[in-house]
Amino acid sequence: MNKGDQRKPNRLINEKSPYLLQHAYNPVDWYPWGEEAFQKAEQEGKPVFLSIGYSTCHWCHVMEKESFEDHEVAGLLNKDFVAIKVDREERPDLDQLYMTACQALAGQGGWPLSIFMTADKKPFFAATYLPKYSRMGISGLVEFLPKMAEIWHRDRERVEQAARDVTEALRKHAEGDAPGLSGKEAGGFPTEALLEQAYRSLEESYDPENGGFGGAPKFPSPHQLWFLLRYMKRSGLEKAQAMAVNTLKKMHRGGIFDQLGYGMHRYSVDRQWLVPHFEKMLYDQATTAEAALEAYRVSGDPEMAEFARQVFSYVLNDLVSPEGAFYSAEDADSEGEEGTFYVWKRSELLDLLGPEKGELAADYFGVTEAGNFEKGNSVLHRPYDDQAFRTEKGLSRKQLDDLIKEAREKMLRARSERERPFLDDKVITAWNGMIIAALARGAVVLGDKSYAEAAGQAADFILEKMVSEKGQLYRRYREGERAIPAFLEDYAFLARGLIQLDRATLDGRRLEQAQELAGAMDRFLNREKGKLEFSTVEENIADLPLYVEAYDGAIPSGVAAAADTYLRLGRLLGDEGMVRKSELLLEGQVGLLERFPTGHTALLTVLDDILSHSGKNSKPGE
């Protein structure tokens, strides 16, 4: 019996979300998102404390351990607030809305997301991680919660007015930045100049030494690399390709990539791609593999093919369910600390491999006596090019290959004895669509039919288990339950994956399935003049319009995926109306694209495709 089984569960025990279940034995009287919680807040005259996070979030774990498992903090929350927990991966609509509020109120965002709001769902205060006690300028909950409760009871009208003001600001933001409502008169189509503007911005922020863009922290952002590879074809600028390939190589050889079990970690805390936040997300695997495949296709660099194959190896070994669908993520933490599963001491390698081979393997993987991580541990990375390493150590190619093969096998066996990070085994439709597309693309580019077979199994699972008899798609599946009406990104990424699967298999059934999904996306989410709604969830959230935003975050935007889907289907089916839907989405983004082109590179890649094939904005004589 584990520790949790000995304690009284709260309402979250009846949920399917792994994140909510992680909090099911907290002494906090948690509610899942729903009317029961808001009715209680209204009846008892209490504000709502909303906490949003996800199961593989390191700082979410820290806040739970420090505060939500603490009876003092729980007592304060239970006395004066109604506490609600939300899994951001299940409800990206709520996450987007309240993250926007946090960025407006606090000037920054992140997870865990902490929102204080009224019973009618209007936020008046926002923060991210909050410790139990105040430190380093961050308010602690034991001091903050009583003050917040006092202000609420003493000056409630002022607090509620502040909430109305914040909500009105959110409304203006949503209506100003919504697809089709970009704040600029529609009618003009985005021009080729936007592509050059985005390229120049990326070029200016490019880090030639380490790859990537800007300083620390560094996110993979493969959609920016897709754009560069596409732009090279248009412009002939070899530097565009070089920036993308070099960035991929630096990531492939860095600590952000698991050098033993493969797979991409979430992001790097430094500019060298050395020390990551160690969670592994399915969507990062999909987007990185697609970027590596495209880099291989245009450059012929064999390391790019190896990179994609290794990412697929991780996904097919560690994230695939028995039924063929793909799980969401693996945690960063194990044994109560981040990265414990992945890091090594030099002495461990010497003991495991013997002095001679251990020294060579430690040098190859950058494992030093001092370490590059906490407590003298090292994150594995490859500080040397293989050719340079062989030359320095006097090894032949075969000798190095044999050494690393033996070292890797023994290190993997030793690592398997460690406590493995938690696996989030929920199935998210959008993310499965992304990996279906990547695997199908891999089947074509690498000539490996097994990738298409794996993609096909995942597609069959989603279409069988997560679509209603009326064609309604669902967001999440876990333990036999499908739940939450799908969001735009679910329809768009799954349809895009099916289109890629059609290319890989020449199975016309896949194109029909993609067409049906695009039709459902149209019925449920596409309104007029290219305006897309975020979701089909029938819920009024503070009377706010929830339009999907077109900028790229950790994943390419749902708007870009929808535009790509419409465009590809329209061409394949000879349907000009569907092609026009793609163009309308782009027309609706002109203002946003001009203000921040590098934040919309996935959509600009679609624009490039349209301009390259349609002759729009062509120069005279072209």
Q: What percent of residues adopt helix (DSSP H or I)?
A: 40-55%
Number of helices: 24
* Helix-strand makeup class: alpha+beta
- Biggest beta sheet summary: 5 strands, mixed
Tell me, rounded to a whole number, the average pLDDT.
92
CATH topology of the largest domain: Glycosyltransferase
Number of strands: 15
Domains counted in the coordinates: how many? Answer: 3
Under the CATH scheme, the architecture of the largest domain is Alpha/alpha barrel
Radius of gyration: 25 Å
Beta-strand proportion = 5-15%
The quaternary state of the protein chains shown equals: single chain
| Alpha-carbon distance between the two ends | 73 Å
Topology:
Blueprint: H1 18-22, E1 31-32, H2 35-44, E2 48-53, H3 58-68, H4 71-80, E3 82-87, H5 92-106, E4 113-117, E5 123-127, H6 141-154, H7 156-177, H8 192-205, H9 222-235, H10 238-253, E6 267-268, E7 276-277, E8 280-281, H11 282-299, H12 302-319, E9 329-330, E10 333-334, E11 337-338, H13 346-353, H14 355-364, H15 386-393, H16 397-416, E12 423-424, E13 427-428, H17 429-446, H18 449-465, E14 474-478, E15 481-485, H19 488-505, H20 508-525, H21 558-573, H22 576-587, H23 590-595, H24 601-614
Parallel strand pairs: 1-3, 2-3
Antiparallel strand pairs: 2-4, 4-5, 6-7, 8-9, 9-12, 10-11, 13-14, 14-15
Helix pairs in contact: 4-6, 8-9, 8-24, 9-10, 9-11, 9-24, 10-11, 11-12, 11-17, 13-14, 17-18, 17-19, 18-19, 19-20, 19-21, 20-21, 21-22, 21-24
